[in-house]
Amino acid sequence: MPHPFVLDAIRDKIYGCIYGAALGDAIGLYTEFMSADYAEVRYPLPQPQPYQSPSAGSQSQSRSGSSGNAGVPRFILAPSFGLPTTPFHFDSHRSRFKEGMWTDDTDHAVLILLSFLRGWNVIKEKQRLAPNAHLEPSSSNILAAIDHHDFALRLADWVNYGLRDLGTPAIDVGISTRRITQSPGYSANPSQEAYKDWFTGGRENAANGSLMRTHALAILTAGNPSYESAIQTALENSRLTHADSRCGWACILQTTLVRSLIRGDLRYERQLANYVQHTLSKFQHTPNGQEAMSPFHLEVDHVLRFVSPDIRSLADLYLDAPDSGGYVLKTMGCALFLLRSAMRELEGLDPWKRAERRMSLFEELITRLAMAGGDADTNCAVAGALLGAYLGYSCLPTHWRAGLKNGEWLREKIELVYDALWGMAVV
Q1: 208 touches 327 (CB < 8 A)
Q2: What's residue 424's pLDDT?
Q3: Which of 106, 118, 238, 381 could pair with 22 in a Cys bridge, judged by C-beta atoms 3.0 to 4.6 Å apart?
């Protein structure tokens, strides 16, 4: 068992990852399907306002906003800084939600966690009935509790009935996810139905619907020393709905990045290129002409266009282009860009300035990504998972955490997962 100080850090990163994805999801909803120009018109930066500092007694001061200029944040989820919650721009899409709600992105990750908890409880019950049994959070037990078929059935049920635990409907269902999960043969063989849908659709569908949930798998496999089992777990889960190799590769990269951030193996920007190249190598042709991880073609040069360290701004990814907003490589590319940006900025700072800057980076970067428009909720959810695992829960903006709908319920589920994975609660 790791030292309690190490467990504290792991716990902070696990909470940061799940909450970071949910917060990114909620903030991205503000601008989902908008162009960057339209988002700028609908959500202008508020003017600076005095506010009561919790640590400054009666002293009033201004707060540095997420734009880098003096001012309040562009998006406020819980009343703060003398201003109320930022209202949605009212339209046919956002009228179905309330501010602070997450969307299908977080629902799918939650379904993975709920499925795991069900599997874990089954294992606990079996061992309870066995003589002299003592359940340990071993790698084999944890992997056994990850049941892809159970998750697939939960996903199909969610499309029809929403997240039953919360009584919330499935509002923002992806087109391909709905079509695949409601096909007649899905409950018997989910991966086969996903492949058939992809093949009959011209082998072109590479949407981000499986990528948005895969950070949950990274958390479940973070304690497993086997890197390959984490990769296989991510790929198998992706293929339940998205057969294309681009989707599978993105899920593998996201899983390995989040997993390594939680474990403390990934700390510096210079390491990122190795993760990209190693995961791509899983799709290279083997001597017998068959790809090691997938029967489908993956154009490596095309992939690298979206994850290159030479990308200098989010504008280079054209996230708000109307014909490719939900493209999985764009979502992976912008998430990696934000992680790279955070690492670059923090690496050159002294410890005191680094600690101070960590507290504002998540809000600033997620806001910047949301204002790029396009499939903003998914882009921000995937990026939020990475940044949350890198910075930790303690660095997430408090007014966002306080304004997240069903946040306390989510906290309870994370705590149950953490206890199962690490065998104890840190106090």
Answers
A1: yes
A2: 42
A3: 106
Query: What's the Cα-to-Cα distance from 242 to each of 48, 193, 273, 382, rounded to whole Å?
Result: 45, 10, 25, 16
Q: Nearest to residue 307, comparing CAs of 341, 330, 281?
A: 330
DSSP H or E stretch at residue 51: strand 51-52
The sign of the CA dihedral 211, 214, 218, 219 is positive
Residues with Cβ within 8 Å of residue 135, at least 6 apart in sequence? 123, 124, 127, 128, 141
Q: Is residue 222 within 8 Å of residue 10, measured between CB atoms?
A: yes
Segment 266-277 shows an average pLDDT of 96
pLDDT digits (tens, 9 = 90+) for 196-248: 999 999 888 899 999 999 999 999 999 887 889 999 999 999 999 999 999 99
Segment 366-392 shows an average pLDDT of 97
Q: How does DSSP classify residue 174?
A: -
The domain made up of 4-52+63-422 has a fold known as ADP-ribosylglycohydrolase fold (1.10.4080)
- Can you tell me whether residue 131 is helix, strand or coil? coil
Asked if residue 427 has pLDDT above 70, the reply is no
CB 248 within 8 A of CB 207: no
Mean pLDDT of 130-156: 81
Q: What is the dihedral of CA 255, 329, 362, 84, to 10 degrees?
A: -120
Instruction: State the Cα–Cα distance between residues 65 and 81, nearest whole angstrom.
Output: 11
| Banded pLDDT at 74 (limits 50, 70, 90) | confident
